[in-house]
C-alpha cells in the first residue's frame, strides 16, 4: 500500500490501516466482491494465473485384475491482469486535519463511492480497454463450449419461477452450483410483486430477496431485463495490493481545500463461463 502527501498535517485524516478507507467499502458494497457472486482474491503480482479444468480425467470399471487405461485431465489457464481505476475527492482542510473516526468514515465513503461504481460497471458490462471485461462480454455461442454462458429464454415477462429452475438445472449440468442471482432493481421489484395465484394478494416469494435458497443481489449497473445466475466458484475478482492514496492542496489552493486521490487495480476472471447463466428475452 502507498501513501503520498504534499500537504502538511493532512495525514491526520488517515488511520494506520489507511487502505481500509477504500478497500473496506469496496468489498462491502461492490457486487464484484460479493462472495455470493464471485471469489475475491488479493495479489501482489502484476498478473494472477487461474488454472482451469476443462475436462476431467476418465475413470473406468475393470475386472479385479484388469488393467487401467491412463487418462489425463484437460487443463488450461486464465491470466488476469488487474486494471487501474481511481477517484479524486476534494475535502476541506478542517476535515483533513480532523482525526475523528466519523471524519475518516465520511472520507472513506467519498473515496470509495466512485470506485465502486466503476468496478461494478465493468463487472457487469463490456467496456473498452483499459477497463477489464465483464459479464456482458462473455459469448453465448463459441466453438469451445466451455467458454459459453448458459442461456435461459425468459420471454417478454417472468410470471413464475420456472426460468430460475431452468437456470439451476443449466448450471448443475455443467457441474456448477448457482450461489446468487444478480439483476437490476426493477427486475427484483417485478419478482417481488408476483402473486401466488390470479386475483391473489399473497406474494409468490415469501422473501423476495431469496430465490431457491440463493440470495438476490441487485445493482443499478445491471441491464434491465437481464438476470444472472452466478456460481461464485466460477468467477474470481482479483484486487492488487498496491492501493494508493495521494494527498495534495495544489489543485484547490485558492479555496483552502485538499484533494485526495485514490487508485487501485482490479480484474475479473470468468474461468468457467458455462456455469454462469444469463436469463433474458431472446426475441
From TrEMBL:
<protein>
    <submittedName>
        <fullName>Phage major capsid protein</fullName>
    </submittedName>
</protein>
<dbReference type="Pfam" id="PF05065">
    <property type="entry name" value="Phage_capsid"/>
</dbReference>
<dbReference type="InterPro" id="IPR024455">
    <property type="entry name" value="Phage_capsid"/>
</dbReference>
<dbReference type="InterPro" id="IPR054612">
    <property type="entry name" value="Phage_capsid-like_C"/>
</dbReference>
<feature type="domain" description="Phage capsid-like C-terminal">
    <location>
        <begin position="13"/>
        <end position="279"/>
    </location>
</feature>
